[in-house]
Amino acid sequence: MTQTHDRRAQKARTREAILEGARALIARGESVTVTAAAAESGISKATAYRYYSDPAALALEAGLALEVKPYAEVVAGASGAREKVRAVSLYTLDLALAHEAAFRRFLARVLDASVADRRPGTLRGARRIAMFEAALEEARPALGAEATRELVLALATATGIEAVIALRDVAGADADRARATVLAIADALLDRYLGPA
Questions:
Q1: Average pLDDT, whole number, for the chain?
Q2: pLDDT at residue 136 above 90?
Q3: CA distances, 157 to each of 154, 160, 162, 163, 165 (Å)
Q4: Hey, what long-range contacts does 55-61 have (CB within 8 A, 24 or more apart)?
Q5: What pLDDT sits at residue 5?
Q6: DSSP letters of 129-171?
Q7: C-alpha–C-alpha distance, residues 30 and 25, integer Å
């Protein structure tokens, strides 16, 4: 594993710990604040604010995270990197479609916070990144670290709530057409990086 990959994994663990703290607060019926979620998870307040500056966005994401299946369940029955990537692509799109209103509210809060903080590009979610990395693990030796990272980034742009917005709001696609399009994009990217199926 590369140092960059290790650092991303550490950031993902920190984010998840903060989310777990927020979920514990929600479960007890307490108000979610960044400070309280940090304290709950044993993370410094300063660190937590690097991940979440807006408590509403934190609460929304904590609530959404409860709906996310573990990676092993998402790819159950899939064999090989290609099938696993297709499973992750459809799962993240279907999750966004099933909870579209909540994801749109979450995205709006995150975008508002990034503008207010003047910190565009603040990490959010990133579960699909970890899932795509896991799906491509067996292909990593042949692809190499840089090509794997490029493919993960390309796949991440083609699914989730951002794809729902582009496909439904901009292109006028219904859910079935959105699913077919996401699979077509995933297949084209996989063909480019892994070779034709």
A1: 88
A2: yes
A3: 5, 8, 7, 7, 12
A4: 56/109, 57/106, 57/109, 57/110, 57/113, 57/124, 58/18, 58/19, 58/22, 58/32, 58/34, 59/22, 59/26, 59/32, 60/102, 60/105, 60/106, 60/109, 61/19, 61/22, 61/106, 61/124, 61/125
A5: 66
A6: HHHHHHHTGGGHHHH-HHHHHHHHHHHHHTSHHHHHIIIIIIS
A7: 5
